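Hi W., the glycyl-adenosine-5'-phosphate complex you wanted:
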Amino acid sequence: MAVEKSDDLVALCKRRGFIFQSDEIYGGQKGLYTFGPMGVELKNNLKQAWWKTMVWQRDDVEGLDASILTSPNVLKYSGHESTFTDPLCDCKDCKSRWREDQLTDSTCPSCGSKNLTEARPFNLMFKTAIGPVDDGSSFAYLRPETAQQIFTNFKNVLDSTSRSIPFGIGQMGKSFRNEITPGKFIFRVREFEQMELEFFVKPGTDEEWFKYWVQARIDWWVEQGIKKENLEILEAPSNDLSHYSKATTDLLYKFPHGFEELEGIANRQDFDLGSHTKNQAEFDISADVMENKDSTTKLAVQDLETKKWYIPYCIEPSAGVERGVFALLNEAYKEEEVDGKTRVVLGLKPHLSPIKAAIIPLKRNNEDLVNQAKDIKNTLQKLGMGRVMLENSGNIGKSYRRHDEIGTPICITVDFETLEDKAVTVRDRDTMEQKRISISELASYYEKYFD
Ligand code: GAP
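Structure:
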């Protein structure tokens, strides 16, 4: 049942312009997806909701947008060059490649052979050349997480703002991982976006802050429309922690293929600031870090009471945008029987809907109706809730179907009576109720959807 629903959801994503496979006209690229006209709006709305909660509404967080191309030094001292690997094995019979930890009974999923090579570490980072000479002497990585430049910019942010511990730096943007087996639609891809907060705290207060952020992140996903019963918490066992982590809690969502990670919250301790810092010996670093002879900067703060310099601990909530979009689409997708027909509707929260309202002139290209519809569109667009669409198809039934499928909270029809009585018919996506509303009241009626 879940799999069928997933197929229908993937079909809807293509049909209605949410998600396409990348480079499809050349056969498609595995693990790479393109967000279409509706997908880009949904994705941006999700990112904006994250930014509002994690940066704007707080008094202890600043934002950042760092470069994607990353110096090898950053990823050497972060530990990614040596440890950011997955166990790779080859099937000697059909020559396919697999992640050994994802195989069942050490069997090739492609041909069923057990004739596999020993697993060897495969580094997931993509490399590229910097500058016009590609002789291997100057290269960069495409960042595998957005987090590292938050650590390397720690002092820049501190010096240019008036922050003191505890405070955080938030960043959203692309990350790249050369996954051995991408798949499950947009769940595991090779190019994706992350929404990450690095929240710096005094050592000793880290466990309290860790608990705080786990709860805050659960609450946020529920506000975005994820049902509580579809979320689970998994505390990573100590033998499965990333190299930087003292404790990690994963928020798992019930994806169509089962419960899997949507977001991870990690206690990164003083690992990253400690490993990127100059003259590490001056500090009492508790994590096991590599000796650093390249850094030019101390990433430390002064305790105002004791005057002693220390390296803060860091709590990191890190969520994937693609996984968020997938979870929200899965949560919102509904099929209902209406008058003997199946109605497909995306019950997205209005702040996430790609289109906030559709304005539909009853007759296509009728100048008076279209002009009136344009006026309404411009008025609602200016309210800043997001994209409002003029739907000049002349087919009300078809427009309602399309906007139900993309999750538009309200459709507003402009008919010939509108020209006389200055009122429009407003249809609610969820109840399908229709009401006549005067144009003068429309803006406040519309704004209530986003309270
Ligand atoms: N900075 C910490 C970090 O990157 P992670 O658990 O590797 O931790 C964080 O990644 C989040 O990024 C995951 O919870 C997931 O939502 C998303 N993510 C990671 N790899 C992904 C992939 N290959 N495709 C899509 N999303 C991914």
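Residues 8-70+145-329 form a domain with the BirA Bifunctional Protein; domain 2 fold (CATH 3.30.930.10).

W.
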